[in-house]
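Worked problem 6 (solution included).
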Amino acid sequence: MAIVKDSILLQAVRGSLGNEITIYERNGQIIIAKKRGPSKNKPTPKQLEARYKMRIAAAYAKVIIQDPELKAYYKSLAGPGQNAYNMAVKDAYRAPEIQNIKLENMDVVVTTKDEFRVAEVQIQVKDNEGRIVERGRAVLGRNGFDWYYKVAVFPVGGKVIAVAVDLPGNEAVKELLLT
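Solution. The predicted structure is:
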């Protein structure tokens, strides 16, 4: 590896030259290094999972940018050097997060978080034997994070299950036991 200083010739050059060297920039320094080949190690289970998730995310992005509305949405979130496809891949790669479930009077309040947008939150109320007593979609509150669902009855010993779904269909599930 070599660090290049004050070379007018290499200021605009980046990439690989044949199968020999690679020129890249890191932290403002131009670096010339021997080109790396493919790893000879077997991929770990985490690497295989990441590759699978990326393949699914890329497939989602290819389909989603065909829809002009969603393409415009993702393009509006893109920064410099990014496009709608990059944003759609990023959205599909990560699932939403349910930060909190709380009960306020007869309402279930679910606080969600997603880098892009949570499309819907579904609520199930189960009794102590696991039977579904009630289910439905929550309504997004004014703050854009809290989802509200009005429940008729909270069964003692039961539980409330919240499922948050983002645009690509990734789900997050969280339960709250009723006492």
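Discussion: The radius of gyration is 24 Å.
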